[in-house]
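It would be a great kindness if you could assist me with a short task in structural biology. The matter concerns a single protein, recorded as an amino acid sequence and a row of backbone structure tokens. The record follows directly beneath this note:
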Amino acid sequence: MTTLLTESRSQESGVRRAPARTFEDLIVWQRAHVWVLDIYRFTETFPAKETYGLTSQLRRAAVSIPANIAEGFKKAGVADKRRYMNIAQGSLEECRYYLILSRDLGYGDVAALAVKLEEVSKLLTAYARAIESPAS
């Protein structure tokens, strides 16, 4: 059953992919990881007064997305896997707010980050659905 859970349609094209051996094989994890790297670069320019505020909060929420995808990957049951994907989705929405706040505080242009975050959101939704309804 675990093999069936990881063997799903590609999160991008609907084409059948080989079963993921590790969380690093998941496109959703790969994109989320790149997004975290982008967030670290973006927050480097934040004012020093935000070091323990918005910088820390945004980075922690961003890291939580791929971390929960990774943690949920090896869980045996569908309910456990789904729970970790749900936590990742919650962290993603938290990041969405922090981007709005960053923009409104004038800390930088978040447009490109918002587009990438939306891509991760769609991939995460697709992966969560694939967990719940494995292909036969």
